Amino acid sequence: HNRPRMTATVIATPRLRLIPATEAHLRASLEGRDQLAAAVGCAVPASWPPEHFDAAAVQYTLDWLKRYPRDAQWGFYYVELPSDGGGPGTLVGAGGFKGAPDADGIVEIGYSVLPESQRKGYALEAVNGWVQFAFSQPKVRMICAHTLATALPSIGVLKKAGFRQTGSGHDPGAPAGSEVVRFELMKK
């Protein structure tokens, strides 16, 4: 028995569009850049995918979306920089939520920007878009993020977005022996 699918909404920020991934987008991503470009309707740079969004991560996200179709808004998003001329934009990164808020009202975010699109404020703008969306939902009271202690640009993004470091974190995908730190942002 198929549960109805929740269609997640694109989140617009001042310069970006955060496009919720569908099963079709994720399947196309596994096939290749051209297929992803056709599915999402954006240019996909040769440097795609961004760090931490390899085929295993895409497959995990696809499996999650199949299990929780009504929670699509709490899943993965493609980060698009729209074109000035009104044509197709370009994907500059990816990220979003690692599932729906838990029983305590906590949701986790993650993100990654392509190397040539870093240091332009896109990660911060995307994080702020996800934060605004999450805190607009009544059940969310806190957002957390886990990053490597050595990932200074990522830590900088979280601090600029108002997160504070709360101690050790956990990331099953982190390289063995790496220190992971946890950041949290409480709803005001």
What can you tell me about this protein's structure?
Mean pLDDT is 92; it is low at 1-6. The protein has helices spanning 23-31, 33-40, 55-67, 122-135, 152-160; strands at 11-12, 17-20, 76-81, 90-97, 106-113, 142-148, 164-168, 180-186. The protein has 188 residues and is an alpha+beta fold. It has 5 helices and 8 strands. The protein has an 8-stranded mixed beta sheet, with helices on one face.
Number of strand segments: 8
Category from helices, strands and their pairing: alpha+beta
Write down the secondary-structure element order: EEHHHEEEHEHEE
Major sheet details:
8 strands, mixed
Determine the strand fraction and express it as a percent band.
Answer: 25-35%
Overall mean confidence score, pLDDT: 92
Distance between the termini: 40 Å
Query: Considering DSSP H and I runs of 4 or more, what fraction of the residues is helical?
Result: 25-40%
Oligomer class: single chain
Q: Helical stretch count?
A: 5
- Specify Rg, calculated over alpha carbons: 16 Å
Overall shape: it is globular
Strand order of the largest sheet: 1-2-3-4-5-6-8-7
Runs in which pLDDT lies below 50 for 5 or more consecutive residues are 1-6
What's this model, at a glance?
This protein is of the alpha+beta class and 188 residues long. The chain is 28% helix and 25% strand. The chain contains five helices and eight strands, in the order ββαααβββαβαββ.
